């Protein structure tokens, strides 16, 4: 039975056949055509509560199918009651997402399951022409997926009326609010029916305090569903291995470490994402010679929308190997087959680390995460190691610290050494060692090397 308001209901970590759910057979056929024959814990656990109309706060590891967890029951709810085409400019469901890429991805998931019911969907986001969006909204759509800024543009322009909204969803809510969209989200929700008159669904990988505040302000008798484990803190996928290598602060030397990591540990990788803190680092890594002969492309806020879409399409199709991206541009990106994620600098928060890590190891696939960390960042990464309930190991198998021997020998002279990253098997292929492995007594030395 549902727990009392404010307490988490733990969802069992198990998969359930899609045939056992009261879903339109044509939708089940669509799912099976995509290779989806079982629902993950978050998908199966949220279906009935969302379908029943409850306000929901749900958290799960990245890569476990949160989008389908709310798309399916919303489509079923609207589809069963639908009498035909939607009213002009008055959708029945709105989904807010932090980035343009995520808007497109969520819209694609909705279209997959909405088509059998004949429901119309649209994604709206900045950087795309307003004209086609205005035309489609005025024709009438049942479900709108969009970024807060563009949603507000349509509301203020009179082309989007939220008075008929039955379902409001915040996807990647922690990232959206962390990016500074809190006021925009509040304004949008105030344009919709009040709490209790519409359903509110909040899906997130993490639930920091500002998420709890949002729940208090915009939900009524919410049900909190947990597919992570309420006492374990934010977690990454259990199929992902985590590593760190000490790198110099100086850009040219740090780039050399990155190149070594990619050369040695990216062997055989089909897709790699490198996260940078700034657009400048992103561009310099791609346009300079730091990555050697590896094919790479940049993704950040200054890249025009048409080029962003081309870049993501080419990355999915394997036309280049390394996507170098800023956090803001890459949040929510869902690309299968990402083998390796590298943080050029340690991210500012545990939540950012969780989301970066979530770009690999999706849907149970294996993956690896490597953080380049300098002396000023060690304490922050050490805190992640404790909070995530996972092991961030030194990249060198025979090292008790993050600092490779060759780098330690030359660091005092300002260099990084000739063989910064020791030769070893590609990431994801390591075997646990009886000695020097990742047992209880082998925690890396977080102090001086």
From TrEMBL:
Signal peptide bounds: none
Enzyme's top EC category: hydrolase
Statement: the UniProt record of this protein carries the keyword tRNA processing: no
Organism superkingdom: Eukaryota
Annotated Polar residues bias: 398-409
Molecular functions (GO terms): ATP binding; hydrolase activity; RNA binding; RNA helicase activity
Helicase C-terminal domain: residues covered: 256-403
Keywords per UniProt: ATP-binding, Helicase, Hydrolase, Nucleotide-binding
UniProt domain Helicase ATP-binding: residue ranges: 47-225
Segments of skewed composition (Basic and acidic residues): 429-443
EC number(s) reported in the record: 3.6.4.13
Location of region: Disordered: 398-449
CDD domains in the record: DEADc, SF2_C_DEAD
Family per similarity comment: Belongs to the DEAD box helicase family.
Protein's name according to its UniProt entry: RNA helicase
Organism from which the protein derives: Diacronema lutheri (Unicellular marine alga)
